[in-house]
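Here is an idea for our session: we take a single protein and study its fold together. Start from the sequence, derive the backbone structure tokens from it, and show both lines together. Once you have written the record down, we can walk along the chain together:
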Amino acid sequence: MRINKLVTALFLLLIVNTTVFSQATTNSPYSKYGIGVVRTQAFTQGFGMGGVGVGLRTYKDINLQNPASYSAISVVTFDVGYTNNALTLDDGTETQYQNNSYLDHISLAFPVVKNVWGMSFGVLPYSNVGYKYDEVINDPIAGNISFYNEGSGGVNKAYLGNALAVKVDSTSNISLGVNANFLFGSINHDQRAIYGDLANAYNVWKVRDYSVADFGFDFGLQYQKTFTNSDDEKYKLTIGATYGLASGIKTKRTEIIRSFSGTFDFGTIKDTIEFIEEVEDVIQLPSELGFGVSLEKDNKWLLAVDYKVSNWGAIESNDDLYTYQSNSSFAFGAQFIPKHDGSNYLQRVAYRIGSRYSNSYLTINEVDFSEYGITFGIGLPVRRAENSYPRLNFGFEYGNKGTTEAGLIQEKFFNMNVGVTINATWFRKRKYD
């Protein structure tokens, strides 16, 4: 066994994980609320198929969305992804363009006992915070108040997952899986108010920092049935379910309120009004229930559909501007490979398409809104190296989120996800003449 290769890969993965994800960000004004914009957990294959994953079960792709899928992994599999987000923000009067890029995920999976026990671990962003905007509010007493708002940071997720599968009969199996998740990161909110119409009045500068570190768990179940038709063509039907536990994530909150004179950029601190240092706090996350079904013709085509519901409505907001509501999401995806062993390269490419829709878990200024996206993607096989089978995956999504009602922002986005998947047969025994 080339165990040293696995040890080296694991070590490098851990080193990279602790440093790169602090750079992940967003430019969405909706990241101001709560824990930020909660990200999809789909890797590049699922991303190009509308974000499906609950019912996906393949031997060569890591599927974080349902930990029960890890038992299907037949070889050591490494997956890394990179994302670019392009946003157009419209408030009804003017339009702004924003763009950012970041490392999306790093993950490794391998069979402990082939077709019985699989493991996976990795790291990825759980939520992103990133906004910057000015606004002017007219107060009946204070007159015009100019606000500067800025936020940054986010919460990352490191996970370790296990799955066990048992045969039901010669053509079907059932698998159970669990992810142990460590959520960590920091969130910063910076707000400055200038009272331009009040003579001799000092302005106010409020900074809130949250440091997050705690554990959470999610579980998965998959049942897969293999059958053949009259032409001896093989099909696989997979039914999946997931459940994420509700949790109170421990945080430490530091808050400073100061008075200052001058402008946003060139101010002079006058006094500290309030200082709260590292007070223990809790960020509530909801339970989530997911269902998914996929049907696959072996090495030819794949159809999948997901439905998820998150119980955000059970969480109380600590801000008068927004409340939480339970939300549901629906996703559909398809993949087609013309001829996986064909001599023509384009016949071996995986072509993907999908769509998704969800209502937001936020109600802002008493306004509800939704989000939808249309996706497509391709999976490109790369010339194999020694004992490895690399693939280059691209996923693209165009969609819309929000509304211009009640002073809100409408986002139109174009997201691109680039991923590299390597299936490595490091443990294959050598044959000698």
